[in-house]
Design a protein that fits this description.
Strands 1-2-3-4-9-5 form a six-stranded antiparallel β-sheet. A three-stranded antiparallel β-sheet has the order 7-6-8. Helix content is 23%, strand content 25%. With 208 residues, it is of the alpha+beta class. It is built from five helices and nine strands; from the N terminus they run αααβββββββααββ. The protein folds into two domains: 140 residues, no CATH class; 58 residues, no CATH class. The N and C termini lie close together (10 Å).
Amino acid sequence: MKKQTIALLATAFVACAGVASADEIASCKGALTSSESSFVASVQKDLETRLPHAADAEKAGYVRYTKPDDTGAISYADQKWNADPTHPSQLWYDADGNLMGADFSVPRSKGEPRPNLWGVQPCRWFEFNGHVHYVVKDPQTQKLAYDMWIWNDDFTAAGGDLSHPSPQTLVKAGRIPDASIVTTIFEFPTQWDLIVWTKPHSPNQLFW
């Protein structure tokens, strides 16, 4: 998830004050430590070798769920949220399908502190609260609509099962008129998330 999604979620949290608690943003930026530099270099080399293009991500089981954000990044998720350094939970590509970066996530239980993993400072990690993402297709134009989502609490309140989210629940929740228009649906669980640029957004920005 990149800047657009972070801003979107932050706005929604303000609008839904009292319904959902706010995400926690990374609490530090600045120069990388030597261990962080090693981690980023390893990630860059690995992903540029194995998954340099969006088509490679799709073959590996990643599914697109966003439109381009304001950095030009389009996000793909593999719906596996316990990442390791060689298996990011999300990859992002530009409009030409070239790799831009990746998200590495680990599930967060209530009250669990920021991760201390892979030589990366805990303060680099974001926290995102749980929601269900979905993509819909217009039956007339065949155009896909991305960046669609609903809070986990609202989804379960409509009778939904987060382990097996169904488009029918979105109909019950009043989000869509017909379940048949949904092409992708998955839970994005509450998690800690590390955002890494493989192509730096600015000369010194390798973590978001």
